[in-house]
Design a protein that fits this description.
Beta-Lactamase; five-stranded antiparallel beta sheet; two-component regulatory system; histidine kinase; 16 helices
Length: 646
């Protein structure tokens, strides 16, 4: 997969995360309110339409009923009028008939009108007949004079309202005779019909009651349980896997709640197992001595062990979730990670990709460390980085190379000198006594040097043996000083160097009468330190060796401090870090003269102290002298046979 593809995948992952956050933060609109409002509006519309239809139908029914009543009452009115008319051509009726007609109209709330042959109204129960105009042009009157029984609904100009009219000739044989007209005005049928607001109001009340009942059923059976499911889903989406939905409501919702709780339980168990596995993985990688670091596809650190945190000088909390460029500051490591991320995804389908291996050097505390870095692309697009510390191995390889070179050089010089002296001796033997003596002296000196070198190599080999077990016993300080005086005193006197034993620069320091140590290893340490100090101290100088107790640690036995100080030529600061290497000599000329050392003394001291569990420190000032301080712990140990040192 290319870096562009990796960036695309990172963008998609970021988009998915933002979408999940948006979905979690998004508050759903109140479904119950929306459902009820829509249902109430629809129901109100249905009620309004139905009420209107009922009202119009009722009005029509009332009017039809009124019209039927008029038709049945018209013959009766004709009988009253026919008996009251004085003559066939007169338009007058008796006062008694007038009153009778008015009483009947008032009782049934009718309007009765009598129209003469000329079209003039000569009687009307609701209006003054003298003020009314000619009615022969009224539609119902026109139909009646044609011999029909007219039934018409129209607006009355006289009453200024809608009315229903029924008109009929008093004498069907006389078209120009009296017309009897009965009518119902609008005020009458409005009184008989139900008001529209009552119909609509009753429908609205019924609709509200229906909505309330439906709301209660929906809330109890569907809406409430659904809201509980939504809240539970929100809690689960937010990471609260302890949330559970209460199975209630409709059967389908109870089934869904049960299934949701089952899914949450499985997910919680899987997350718990994943958390335990991650903790186990973290504990496992923390026990590894090699730094391990794992990144996701977006470059953020998702796993780091303690050795890696120590190497990068960060805490685990500071590193996790941060981009690797903010955690690692070494260009060599970042370039390796970029190289792995730029690799194409594997095409074999098993998610396996070949790891990249590089040897890198990191600077830590002014010291270069060598690591074998192994980086591998993960299935998810991240990078697994393992740094194997091979500093000791690289140093050992380099030391081996230097040892072979130095040993070859150190052996070649005396062998060459012996060879030349022997050839010269063969030529002048018996002829030149002086030259013969000189050659014999050269051969003897270099043979001693070879013997010394072989002895040091043998001592170094012994103290480097990992199976070496110190033979710890109680040693007397006076015996140690006496041995140094007897073995190295002549060498010091020959060089005119004062050898001071047991003197201290600090009078508060306590010299122990006895202490625990390995006699053979201590002898090697003292011999090489004092011998080295005497060799590099000019005539008139001094070498001081002292033994005193150091500060106790954790209430244990106080360690013994061995100090050897000289007033010799000193060591340049740039050489102090390497003087404990094999064959390393500050004298760059490496003349190989008998007055010089083999370059193995301080290496023997270092490894002998390591076998005793001690440490060595060196301080030197060029032209003023050198002080070597050895800290030797006093530890009781098992007594072993001397075969380990044999």
């Amino acid at each position: 997969m290319t870096s562009a593809h990796a960036d695309g995948r990172s963008a998609e992952a970021e988009h998915a995360r933002s979408l999940r956050v948006t979905m979690i933060d998004m508050k759903p609109r109140p479904f119950f309110a929306r459902l009820i409002v829509i249902f109430a509006i629809l129901l109100a519309m249905i009620v309004a339409v139905c009420g209107g239809v009922i009202y119009v139908s009722g009005q029509r029914a009332v009017r039809s009923q009124q019209l039927d009543h008029l038709r049945r009452l018209t013959p009766l009115i004709k009988e009253w009028v026919a008996s009251a008319v004085a003559g066939a051509q007169t338009d007058e009726i008796t006062p008694a008939t007038r009153q009778r007609l008015r009483d009947a109209a008032r009782i049934v709330d009718f309007r009765i009108t009598l129209i003469g042959g000329n079209g003039m109204v000569f009687f009307d129960t609701d209006h003054d007949a003298s003020t009314m105009d000619n009615h022969n042009y009224r539609p119902e009157v026109v139909s009646a004079r044609k011999g029909e029984v007219a039934s018409i609904q129209r607006h009355s100009a006289t009453m200024e309202q809608e009315s229903i009219y029924v008109a009929e000739l008093l004498d069907p044989s006389r078209p120009d005779g009296v017309v009897v007209r009965a009518s119902f005005p609008e005020r009458s049928w409005n009184q008989l019909s139900v008001p529209g607001w009552q119909v609509v109001g009753g429908g609205v009340v019924a609709a509200l009651l229906a909505v309330g009942l439906l709301s209660f059923i929906l809330q109890r059976r569907w809406i409430g349980p659904t809201q509980d499911l939504v809240r539970t889903a929100d809690l689960l989406a937010a990471g609260d896997w302890n949330a559970r939905a209460q199975p209630r409501g409709a059967e389908q919702l109870q089934f869904f709640s049960t299934r949701l709780n089952l899914v949450a339980s499985h997910a919680q168990q899987q997350l718990s197992d994943l958390h335990d596995q991650r903790a186990d993985l973290q504990a496992l990688v923390d026990t590894l001595p090699d730094p391990v670091l794992l990144t996701a596809a977006d470059g953020k650190v998702i796993l780091i062990n303690l050795p890696a945190a120590r190497l990068l000088a960060v805490s685990r909390g500071q590193a996790l979730g941060q981009n690797i460029v903010h955690v690692v500051s070494d260009d060599a490591v970042l370039q390796l990670v970029d190289r792995v991320q730029a690799m194409l995804a594997p095409t074999n389908g098993d998610g396996d990709s070949p790891p990249l291996t590089r040897v890198i050097r990191l600077n830590r505390d002014a010291q270069y460390l060598t690591f074998q870095a192994v980086a591998k692309r993960t299935v998810g697009g991240g990078v697994l980085l393992v740094l194997r510390d091979v500093t000791a191995l690289a140093s050992a390889v380099q030391m081996k190379t230097d040892f072979v070179a130095n040993a070859s050089h150190e052996l070649r010089t005396p062998i060459a000198a012996i060879k030349i002296a022997f050839e010269t001796l063969r030529e002048v033997y018996g002829d030149d006594a002086t030259q013969t003596e000189r050659c014999m002296s050269i051969i003897d000196g270099h043979l001693k040097r070879l013997e010394e070198m072989l002895g040091d190599l043998l001592d170094l080999s012994r103290v480097e043996n990992p199976n070496l077990k110190p033979i710890v016993k109680r040693l007397k300080t006076a015996d140690v000083f006496a041995h140094v005086r007897s073995s190295l005193g002549p060498m010091a006197r020959q060089k005119l160097v004062e050898l001071r034993l047991g003197e201290r620069d600090n009078p508060e320091r306590i010299t122990p009468q006895e202490f625990l140590c390995d006699e053979r290893l201590l002898g090697l340490i003292v011999k090489n330190l004092v011998e080295n100090a005497v060799k590099f101290t000019p005539a008139g100088g001094s070498v001081t060796m002292s033994l005193y107790e150091g500060p106790a640690v954790d209430g244990g036995e106080a360690p013994v401090i061995l100090s050897v100080a000289d007033t010799g030529i000193g060591i340049p600061p740039e050489h102090l870090d390497r003087v404990f290497e094999r064959f390393y000599q500050v004298d760059s000329a490496r003349s190989g003269s008998a007055g010089r050392g083999t370059g193995l003394g301080l290496a023997i001291v270092k490894h002998a102290l390591a076998a005793l569990g001690g440490i060595v420190e060196i301080e030197s000032t060029l032209g003023e002298g050198t002080t070597v301080t050895c800290t030797i712990p006093q530890v009781e140990a098992e007594v072993h046979s001397e075969e380990a040192m044999a």
